[in-house]
Design goal:
Strand order of the largest sheet: 3-2-4-5-6
Oligomer: single chain
Order of helices and strands: EEHEHEHEHEHE
Number of helices: 5
Number of strands: 7
Radius of gyration: 14 Å
Strand content: 15-25%
Distance between the termini: 14 Å
Structural class: alpha/beta
Largest sheet: 5 strands, parallel
Helix content: 25-40%
Length: 137
């Protein structure tokens, strides 16, 4: 089994308030990474491309489902990919739910320097690819 190094192909934000992520999209170190935004979980899932290594940022409260529900649906289609679940404000209940669901990180708005570091690290960290293209280790 051959393993190759692959960066994250794109960043997808699923949130009804996409303007909240402006600092993230303006960061010069992320300019080479395609970014897409969706206002609902269903819209994002319809555009899912399992052949791409995607970093997901998903709000815990989407108009059509919870972030945890979205994560469960996403995991049925793509086994391993980084998923950051986002709250509009910190909630211990949300944080525990995000961790229990297997989110890569739980973050709270507003976007800040720590978010940018996490995002840059997730995008630049080499991922070992084995087998199916959506399999990130």
């Amino acid at each position: 089994m051959n393993a190759t190094t692959q960066r994250v192909d794109d960043l997808i934000v699923v949130d009804a308030a996409p303007d909240d992520y402006a600092p993230l999209f303006l960061d010069e170190r992320l300019h080479d990474t395609p970014c897409r935004q969706f206002a609902s979980g269903e819209a994002a899932l319809q555009q899912l491309d399992p052949s791409r290594a995607t970093l997901w940022m998903v709000n815990m409260r989407l108009p059509d489902m919870t972030g945890v529900s979205f994560l469960e649906l996403l995991r049925q289609r793509v086994r391993r990919c980084p998923v950051f679940l986002i709250s509009d404000e910190h909630s211990l209940e949300d944080e525990l739910a995000a961790r229990a669901a297997g989110a890569s990180a739980y973050l709270c708005k507003p976007v800040n320097g720590a978010w940018l570091r996490l995002c840059r690290d997730a995008i630049s960290r080499p991922a070992q690819r084995r087998g199916a293209p959506q399999s990130l280790s």
